[in-house]
Amino acid sequence: MAEFDPKALFSMSYGMYIVSSHLAEKANGQIANAVMQTTAEPATITVCLNRENLTERCVQETGLFAVSVLQEEVPMTFIGTFGFKSGRDIDKFAGVDHVTGGLNIPVVREWCLSAFEAKVTGRLNLGTHTLFAGEIVSAWVFKEGIPLTYANYHLVKRGKSPKTAPTFAFNDMK
Fold it and tell me: Which candidate, 17, 27, 33, 160, has a CA 20 to 30 Å from the CA of 148?
């Protein structure tokens, strides 16, 4: 059984998040689905970011990132700002409810259930992407609710993947 059916990847469970960081005074953030808790002691999360994205460069240079957990009711226009526009062209945080955490990283509150700040403790070059591991230094719960899953984003909201997403090549298969 040596065949590869990429549709099998659609059965994996993912959440939808905003990963943010900063570079000098420039804040940036992006939508990501490749985020997970990896250890409990110390509390560590990992994020996987495309090396073409400004957010990846920010995390690479500062060694800091935040993850905000999107709620299921988030409108597609909000996702579009963080997922389909470049922080090189616009200020993604203009008019968005956010706070600055203890690491001086913008943390999105709007349409988010919770958030984490982390310091990078490891990184792995995956060619097109970088996998960052970070020890959580701050965490907040903003409200109760249902987190947005990648399945809901595609099946209910009919969302697509941007060209820098790991799942972009599969847009036509859905």
Answer: 27
Query: SS3 for 104?
Result: coil
Cα 54 from Cα 59, distance rounded (Å): 9
Q: In the CATH scheme, what is the code of domain 12-168?
A: 2.30.110.10
- What is the reported pTM? 0.88
pLDDT per residue as tens digits for the range 106-119: 999 999 999 999 99
Cα–Cα distance measured from residue 109 to residue 113, given in angstroms and rounded to the nearest whole number: 7
Q: Any idea where the domains of the chain sit in the sequence?
A: 12-168
The phi and psi torsions of 47 (rounded to 5 degrees) equal -135, 145
Give the integer Cα–Cα distance in Å for 90 and 145: 30
Query: According to DSSP H, which parts of 28-88 are helical?
Result: 54-62, 76-83
